[in-house]
């Protein structure tokens, strides 16, 4: 079986890495309490109804932004670039291709500053690309600390996943690492990379545009399991895990935040030798594909339904901040 997304010629790669994921939430205080006290991100900057939450091991100014809003939505996904010249080149390339820009390249007005721009992807999500953001003073996470080191990857739902995969390959230079398929359902999830890590973005087939999950890297297996256990003791709803995926070879424990967004603790995401890597097509009806260890609850329709999330109310509507 040939995946049509694998045939899309990629653009020149100008994106270097994933920066942060921004969420709009109606119950702002409850979400802020959860992401700081329970999930263990650090509130570096807070304003009236706006919080910038950092992973303590990351040089990024923040990994999650929370914004008070009447509507639950994914405000944006942010990626890094190496230089203002690369930011300008990407904005020009997208504009020539007819992609709708939300803002032209210019100063970034969030913590750390920098230079960047925003645009809508083919499904209407807002995406930001920036460079020259000030490096945050971060620290080494010590043995036994069950706090996130960094934002690992973001997975999004699309009702048109083949087109969405092709968009990120053709316009942004993402490369396909692996694909998950099902004998009856066809291709269901595509893992895309923009550096040597197996994926920083993945596209899942879903009934509507929405966030599938955001994943946070832990220091190691012990810290990952300690974090998983800490959330279980706190009564946070776990929907899947702990286990280890085959695609990416990373561990997984999926939980729901207070607004029903799926978030994940993970560790040991695979780094690839890009010159020799060939994408796999994995059949996720095989239990070894979804969980090599066999320790997680079986993947079923309930788990899949939780990850569909609510339809995103921010489609083709740029966030106000």
UniProtKB/TrEMBL annotation:
The cross-references to InterPro entries, in alphabetical order and at most eight, read: Glyas_Bleomycin-R_OHBP_Dase, Glyas_Fos-R_dOase_dom, GlyoxalaseI/FosfomycinResist, VOC_core
**UniProt name for this protein:** Oxidoreductase
Query: Mind giving the lineage of the organism this protein is from?
Result: Bacteria, Bacillati, Actinomycetota, Actinomycetes, Propionibacteriales
Pinpoint the VOC domain residues: 17-132, 150-268
PANTHER family attached to this UniProt entry: GLYOXALASE FAMILY PROTEIN, METALLOTHIOL TRANSFERASE FOSB
Q: In terms of domain of life, where is this protein from? A: Bacteria
- Please give one Pfam family short name: Glyoxalase
State the species of origin: Nocardioides luteus
